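QA checklist item 7 of 12: single-chain prediction sanity check.
[x] sequence parsed
[x] length recorded as 368
[x] structure emitted
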Amino acid sequence: MSTHDLYSTPVEEPAWSVPANGQTRFNWEYDDNREKLLSLYQKGKDKQWDSVKRIDWGIEVDPYDALGLPDQSIAIYGTPYWDRMSEQNRRELRQHIASWQFSQFMHGEQGAMITGARIVETVPDLDAKFYSATQTMDEARHVEIFSKFLHDKVGLVYPINNKLQQLLGDTLSDSRWDMPYLGMQVLIEGLALAAFGVMRDFSTKPLPKQILTYVMQDEARHVAFGRLALRDYYKQLSAAEIAEREDFVIEGCYLMRDRIRGYEIWGNFGIPPAEAEALVENSEYMQLFQSLLFSRIVPCVKDIGLWSEKIQTAYAKMGVLDAAMGDLDALMRQDEELADTLDQERFAAEESERRAEVDDVIAEAATS
């Protein structure tokens, strides 16, 4: 079935074009340059995987409870709108929320795939080109996974959120080679990684937990790549150049904050935009969700050297400044370890089941 047939609202244009700016750079120096980046590139090669084989797509999913999140996580829970809903309306709302969330993941991952290819083209250093080539493949796999989940398991797709689309456009249309790193690796990927983590930890359903756990293992490397590449470069920039990038970060963070609120959902259930905005703004769950979503971005921005009073003031106004004290390296290690642990648990269980089947066959043959 065509994706156009699954969209929650009609999508007039089947594609979106962003004018390409900047220079394509070749590098004729092939020596080993930065050891940390090359180590990350080696890990990127070692950790390639096939979503068809690693993910158990045979798991059944109820499209009306795809994520298994508590109803308290729904912004209108406990309000008159919720109380007036029939059980079927609530089931449909759960489907729309899961669809909206995973649709934005899917669209964001396509943006990451295209940005990865752009970095290969524009970044001056060959070691960074090497790693970004592996990331481009990772992101293609992620688009494939989220698309399959939406098509085969949820049966509903949402168009790209306009705030996400705006930040992607700003990131890809900038001619400076470091801006795709900053917009994608730090802001979009940083927020996505945190959103994946919240969904992974709160979901009670095995298939989305698998998907998010494995995707996060890749994304942890991608954010590390952005940090390594930008940390050294930003030490060389003038105060004016740093200020320009801080302005970009602040605007991008506001766009990302607004992007996660899912305003598109509520109009489909008869809730006026102004009321929906107030309900989302006052939701305790959404306030918690927002604070968790910046747990990766804020310490990363600080780590790469964009940490003026202006940045800190903006984060204080958003209520996420305390995230600067988080241990980003520990979070990344956890993301990688959880995927390895899940593999061990899943494949050990499968091996145990196969061994039991063989034992049953042997026992049956012995008594026949």
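[x] summary fact logged: The domain at 3-12+34-328 is CATH 1.10.620.20 (Ribonucleotide Reductase, subunit A).
[ ] second reviewer sign-off
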